[in-house]
């Protein structure tokens, strides 16, 4: 019963099986004991719980289907219990629930309303927010689930809703429509059963991807023919990996069963869009929340910031203080009552039941009563205020126009607002290279063919070396003219003089560029290729009529380079690849594609040439291709590759192998067996790929350039000045990575570069690490940089982690090359768990960076050209690496200062609030008499003191943002969580206690014996005394917040002084009227009579000034004797004392509009005039000279907009 209840609430996912069997068109066997499997319907539920994100709901054949409502975050009937469960998982909420229950069960000095109402308020606000968001998602889901879809049923096309699609249904999708479920492609309008899709909505890749159907179903292009299909699909249960699918299709034709493998190339993902294809038919294999798109829904990050951890520590300390006060009060009460006259005074006789009750029970009851009396020292509203501050504050990042990239029309995105303040605590930055530090826009620059280097110049290849002499040059050019009469290829006399050698060399060039044109996954739109395949090709048409789409910019650059040279890839037609060699069309039959993977670091294709010969073309990193080669200019090419890498170019090696008929038959058989395996398919394919890609002949290498992004060197230098160590983690080869590190300023020319590369064994690696440690110790004055490759890193992390970390920590910059994605994450984890526990930040732009982005404390995704997976899985997403400096130095600095002050201030004002209550017990014989009225107890944290600190935490700028960015060293002042250190915490706590003592004893001293206080002759009473203390306290803590505020807007003025005014107005109405719904009204006319006394006003003003004067004196002495760098920077004088919203004058087109904005601001705050506003920065400043931030609220000149 309990398991069923938990499953209905969505906490326990049902049991899962490894595979599922799908009968196409739901044609189940007519005989046997087969029980159809139960699958969830096709409804998308975006408001699912986090558990659904990690575990899809999969069912066994004989298990009843789980109701779809389970996957909603909330339903009508589980909203209340599930919300309460989530809310009371928080320690503070659970604590106040216990206090509330204690107040209900025993006789306590305060009403249960004092704890119940704030608790109810906090839970209600959170529940309304979550319920409203869930309701919006319900409406959005209904629109998606109600979209029209055509399915094949009963021999015809039936129009239905998307939510009604079932697993096994055959679905028709037309051009430019989105796939309603995960479909296995059956056929298309093309004879080969292929289609093109774009997955931009899933991973951001805009390239066209080709998917193909198995030959037996590709010919079924009509509804009638599909209705006769008898086939069964067996595949794995759903998983979130977009690029992984394993299955097989058993097709029955004329009583013969045909088995065909199914892979990612057969699966059409929900959310992808059909392009350049009239229509397709596919069978639904995963529906609803089992689709890969749904399984990739991003759940809320579980990362916790350092501020949150400090806040929990402070809560525990205050809980200890609370318990200690309750114990002390209970002990003192019984000590006082040891005397008979105080145990049972004549005016308070005990009942018979009280006299006979257990002393232990009375002690416990009194302890709980004191616990209730002092419980407000724990700030219940702290959580909800922090959540509001983080949620509302996160909008400023998206609104900051300095983080907006005009070229790509992308603004900064916040995926996790819980880590805003963590941006101000970063100590290590781990960054990818390609697409993060560089543009990821590849340009072909050089190549090496058969041991000769060439550079591209104006669409021609020019070889390096001496120019041909007059006797040899004409002979060479004439012999080449039959192959390149357009002179796209010019060479030198280094080719030799013999005709045979020259023809052989020409064949090598031809084979090299044909390998480049055939070994790829590039696609071309059908519209663009119309007419190109007919007649002789003209080279001048290539740039204007051919537009290639590729998932990798490298592939696109290489195919475009081959086209400029004269070997043009035309496109795919059925199972052939069409290439034009100097105008002559050639068709190569594509037999197999050996897909790229990060372990092999290469890809291959097997094609059949028009002559009938079969070739294997392979390309990949030199470390993965050269060891597989047995022929060609291997050593010369290796030298050329190193030279390319020293220039910062990205290199790939090209090789081939000619296959005999017997070899191909063996390869074809092995590939079929591996691809049809349901178990361990990836491992078997990897073994087969290793078997195929061997005995290669090296053709040459290519070199493409990926230029640096704008302002990368300046950003890295600023990070270094801020005390942040920068590590570059890349998959590129050693020389390329070092060259880029030098060019971007990661490594300085004067830096001593240490290397831990090419290590073969643990002992060799350990010895090298010890040598590096000695060198660092000997040359401790010089800055050191460390270069590590992936192989050596694996050895270092295996048994020498401590030694490796010691070396890394003593290096100013670290470069890790040839890194696998999981190695990147492991390096970050190693830094995270080091004894210093530094805060780490990871920056990347590709899917291979997701693991390190998720591992780091803060993950930054670059919205680049390698898709959107990094941006979707990150905490924050920006368009360019240079925006990182503004994000950390300005936003991170502000967010940290704001929330650190918020946390400290909350504890301070609650100490001020409850300490007088504790002191009052010494004057009332520990009778548990409350000092404040219950209404004041309830509204203190909710109404009277909540808004000033909330507005402060959203708008405070203790220093000009331009100064923060121009002086990165100021970032060091807030590092190591200094604003929430124990020293600072003790200062705020002691300040709270001292102010509380002044409130209480000041009131006692000034007013306690003043019998002429009230005009009607009444003496100073309990409620009058408590109201006086409470009034002084509200004014003091509010003005204290005003003293902490450096940046004043009209909003700050409104909430600060408005809070004090609201308290007075509320008290007048609350105590001045007899409210009929209140059973007893102790405060009737108390507040009015108190303030009618001049002595009371004098006491209030004197105590407020006394409290704040001491604080002001301390601040003045600290600034004069021990000023911080930030305090020094605050004294920098600007040309204007006026600060306005930066964006105010920037969305105008001249002085007229800006002046109107100024007049509007003058009416609002009376002090902003654009004519008086100037900027700190000049046009020569390195960062953001076009500053238009609407966050920074800082000065700027309208002309610079």
TrEMBL record:
Main location: membrane
Domain annotation P-type ATPase N-terminal: ranges: 73-115
Entries under CDD domains matching the protein: P-type_ATPase_APLT_Dnf-like
Top EC category: translocase
Entries under InterPro entries matching the protein: ATPase_P-typ_cyto_dom_N, ATPase_P-typ_P_site, ATPase_P-typ_TM_dom_sf, ATPase_P-typ_transduc_dom_A_sf, ATPase_P-type_domA, HAD-like_sf, HAD_sf, P-type_ATPase_IV
Superkingdom in the source lineage: Eukaryota
Cofactor(s) named in the record: Mg(2+)
Reaction(s) the record says it catalyses: ATP + H2O + phospholipidSide 1 = ADP + phosphate + phospholipidSide 2
PROSITE patterns membership: ATPASE_E1_E2
Record keywords, A-Z: ATP-binding, Magnesium, Membrane, Metal-binding, Nucleotide-binding, Translocase, Transmembrane, Transmembrane helix
Entry's family note: Belongs to the cation transport ATPase (P-type) (TC 3.A.3) family. Type IV subfamily.
Record-given protein name: Phospholipid-transporting ATPase
């Amino acid at each position: 019963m309990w398991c069923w209840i938990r499953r209905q609430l969505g906490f326990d996912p049902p049991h899962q099986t490894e595979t599922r069997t799908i009968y196409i068109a739901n044609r189940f066997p007519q005989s046997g004991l087969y029980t159809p499997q139960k699958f969830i319907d096709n409804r998308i539920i975006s408001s699912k719980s986090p558990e659904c994100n990690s575990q899809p709901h999969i069912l066994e054949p004989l298990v009843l289907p789980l109701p779809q409502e389970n996957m909603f975050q909330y339903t009508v009937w589980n909203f209340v219990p599930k919300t309460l469960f989530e809310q009371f998982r928080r320690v503070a909420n659970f604590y106040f629930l216990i206090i509330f229950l204690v107040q209900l069960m025993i006789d306590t000095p305060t009403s249960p309303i004092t704890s119940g109402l704030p608790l109810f308020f906090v839970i209600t606000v959170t529940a309304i927010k979550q319920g409203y968001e869930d309701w919006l998602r319900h409406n959005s889901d209904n629109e998606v689930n109600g979209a029209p879809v055509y399915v094949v049923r009963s021999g015809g096309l039936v129009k239905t809703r998307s939510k009604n699609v079932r697993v096994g249904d055959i679905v028709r999708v037309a051009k430019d429509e989105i796939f309603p479920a995960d479909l296995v492609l059956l056929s298309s309008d093309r004879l080969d059963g292929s289609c093109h899709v774009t997955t931009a909505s899933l991973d951001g890749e805009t390239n066209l991807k080709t998917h193909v159907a198995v030959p037996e179903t590709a010919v079924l292009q009509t509804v009638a023919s599909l209705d006769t299909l008898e086939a069964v699909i067996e595949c794995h249960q759903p998983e979130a990996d977009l690029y992984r699918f394993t299955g097989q299709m058993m097709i029955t034709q004329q009583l013969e069963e045909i088995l065909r493998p199914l892979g990612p190339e057969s699966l059409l993902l929900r959310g992808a869009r059909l392009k350049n294809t009239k229509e397709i038919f596919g069978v639904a294999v995963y529906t609803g929340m089992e689709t890969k798109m749904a399984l990739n829904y991003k759940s809320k990050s579980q990362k916790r910031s350092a501020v949150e951890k400090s806040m929990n520590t402070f809560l525990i300390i205050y809980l200890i203080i609370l318990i200690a006060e309750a114990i002390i009060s209970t002990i003192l009460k019984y000590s006082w009552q040891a005397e008979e006259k105080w145990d049972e005074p004549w005016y308070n006789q005990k009942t018979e039941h009280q006299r006979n009750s257990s002393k232990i029970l009375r002690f416990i009851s009194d302890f709980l009563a004191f616990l209730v009396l002092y419980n407000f020292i724990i700030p219940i509203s702290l959580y909800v205020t922090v959540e509001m501050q983080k949620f509302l504050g996160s909008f400023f990042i998206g609104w900051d126009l300095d983080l907006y990239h005009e070229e790509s029309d992308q603004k900064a995105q916040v995926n996790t607002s819980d880590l805003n303040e963590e941006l101000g605590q970063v100590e290590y930055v781990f960054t990818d290279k390609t697409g993060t530090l560089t543009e990821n826009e590849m340009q072909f620059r050089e190549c090496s063919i058969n041991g000769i280097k060439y550079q591209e110049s104006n669409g021609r290849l020019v070889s390096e070396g001496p120019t041909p002499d007059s006797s040899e040059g004409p002979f060479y050019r004439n012999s080449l003219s039959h192959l390149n009469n357009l002179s796209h290829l010019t060479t030198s006399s280094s080719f030799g003089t013999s005709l045979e050698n020259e023809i052989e060399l020409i064949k090598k060039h031809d084979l090299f560029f044909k390998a480049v044109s055939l070994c790829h996954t590039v696609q071309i739109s059908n519209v663009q290729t119309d007419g190109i395949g007919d007649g002789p090709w003209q080279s001048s048409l290539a740039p204007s009529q051919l537009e290639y789409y590729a998932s990798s910019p490298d592939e696109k650059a290489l195919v475009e380079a081959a086209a400029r040279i004269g070997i043009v890839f035309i496109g795919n037609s059925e199972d052939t690849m069409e290439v034009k060699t100097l105008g002559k069309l050639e068709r190569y039959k594509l037999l197999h594609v050996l897909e790229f993977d990060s372990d092999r670091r290469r890809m291959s294709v097997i094609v059949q040439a028009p002559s009938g010969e079969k070739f294997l073309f392979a390309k990949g990193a030199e470390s993965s291709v050269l060891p597989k080669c047995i022929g060609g200019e291997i050593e010369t090419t290796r030298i050329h590759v190193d030279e390319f890498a020293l220039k910062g170019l990205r290199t790939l090696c090209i090789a081939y192998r000619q296959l005999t008929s017997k070899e191909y038959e063996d390869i074809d058989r092995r590939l079929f067996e591996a691809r049809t395996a349901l178990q361990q398919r990836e491992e078997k394919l990897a073994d087969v790929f290793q078997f195929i890609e061997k005995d290669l002949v090296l053709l040459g290498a290519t070199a493409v350039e990926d230029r640096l992004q704008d302002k990368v060197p300046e950003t890295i230098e600023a990070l270094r000045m801020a005390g942040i160590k920068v590590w570059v983690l890349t998959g590129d080869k050693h020389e390329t990575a070092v060259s880029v590190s030098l060019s971007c300023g990661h490594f300085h020319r004067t830096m001593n570069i240490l290397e831990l590369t090419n290590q073969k064994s643990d002992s060799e690696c350990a010895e090298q690490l010890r040598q590096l440690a000695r060198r660092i110790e000997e040359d401790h004055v010089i800055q050191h940089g460390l270069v590590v490759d992936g192989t050596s890193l694996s050895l270092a992390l295996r048994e020498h982690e401590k030694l490796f970390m010691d070396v890394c920590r003593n290096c100013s910059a670290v470069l890790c090359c040839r890194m696998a994605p999981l190695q990147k994450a492991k390096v970050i984890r190693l830094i995270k768990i080091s004894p210093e526990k530094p805060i780490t930040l990871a920056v990347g732009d590709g899917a291979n960076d997701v693991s390190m982005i998720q591992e780091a404390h803060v993950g930054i995704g670059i919205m680049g050209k390698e898709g959107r997976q990094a941006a979707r899985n990150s905490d924050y997403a920006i368009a360019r690496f240079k925006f990182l400096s503004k994000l950390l130095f300005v936003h991170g600095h502000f967010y940290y200062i704001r929330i650190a002050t918020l946390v400290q201030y909350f504890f301070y004002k609650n100490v001020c609030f409850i300490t007088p209550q504790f002191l009052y017990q010494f004057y009332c014989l520990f009778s548990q008499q409350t000092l404040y009225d219950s209404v004041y107890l309830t509204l203190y944290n909710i109404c009277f003191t909540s808004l000033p600190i909330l507005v402060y935490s959203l708008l405070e700028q203790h220093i000009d943002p331009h100064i923060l960015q121009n002086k990165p060293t100021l970032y060091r002042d807030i590092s190591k969580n200094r604003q929430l250190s124990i020293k600072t915490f003790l200062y705020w706590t002691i300040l709270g206690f001292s102010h509380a003592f002044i409130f209480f004893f000041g009131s006692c001293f000034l007013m306690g014996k003043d019998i002429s206080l009230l005009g009607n002759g009444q003496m100073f009473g309990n409620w009058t005394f408590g109201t006086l203390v409470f009034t002084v306290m509200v004014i003091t803590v509010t003005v204290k917040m005003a003293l902490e505020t450096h940046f004043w807007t009209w909003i700050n003025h409104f909430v600060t002084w408005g809070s004090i005014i609201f308290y007075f107005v509320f008290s007048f109405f609350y105590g001045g009227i007899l409210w009929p719904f209140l059973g007893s009204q102790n405060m009737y006319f108390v507040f009015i009579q108190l303030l009618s006394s001049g002595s009371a006003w004098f006491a209030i003003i004197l105590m407020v000034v006394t409290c704040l004067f001491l604080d002001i004196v301390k601040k003045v002495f600290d600034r004069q004797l021990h000023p911080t760098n930030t305090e020094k920077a605050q004294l920098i004088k600007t040309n204007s004392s006026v600060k306005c919203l930066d964006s105010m004058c920037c969305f105008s087109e001249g002085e007229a509009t800006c002046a109107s904005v100024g007049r509007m601001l003058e009416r609002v705050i009376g002090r902003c005039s654009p004519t008086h506003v100037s900027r700190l920065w000049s046009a020569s400043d390195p960062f953001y000279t076009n500053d238009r931030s609407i966050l920074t609220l800082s000065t700027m000149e309208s002309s610079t907009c």
